[in-house]
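Sequence of Glutathione S-transferase (Patiria miniata).
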Amino acid sequence: MSSYKLYYFDGRGRGETARMLFAVGGCEFEDVRVSGDKWKELKPKTPLGQIPVLEVDGKQLPQSRAIEGYLAREFGLYGSNSLEAARIDAVYDTVGELMARPIQLTFYEKDEEKKKAELAKYYVEEAPRRMGGLTRLFEMYGGGEEGFFVGNKMSLADIFFFAMTEYFDENELKKYPKMEALHNRVATNSRIATHMKNRPTPTF
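Predicted 3D structure, token representation.
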């Protein structure tokens, strides 16, 4: 069995989906949380000078999307055929589009008043269209009211959606009942729930 080390900062960001994939896959890994001087030492040793980086038996794999795709395939969370895998990719990209603006504002806008105003604008002007698209994909590809994005089985699409919408205002999420229900369905998965309970308090 392969040994895994995941290198990322002590926060959620681009590392949390991979951590959740390990949890759902029931696979042990070393969660290396990097900060301060440790990052200065590690940075020149990474392929691209950035993290996350996954080590598989000592071999490095950079880029969060590549890491997540690899783990999802390893753990049977990437659909049962090529079409389902493509549908998972479509959902993944749509979630990325949904969350690009709020994540940008959350991490990079230092003016708190401007951040608040821009987020309010986003939730009125952009979020309904993005969430509407995700809801349509769920209705087209999913397994009904109690299902997931692609069929009746949890996949990378659902885990990525859940991890990213931790940054989506929970009161705004209530405006999209099917998406809120899906978010809650992932949250109540026993392995996700255990991960959430036991993970360190994130710095971001």
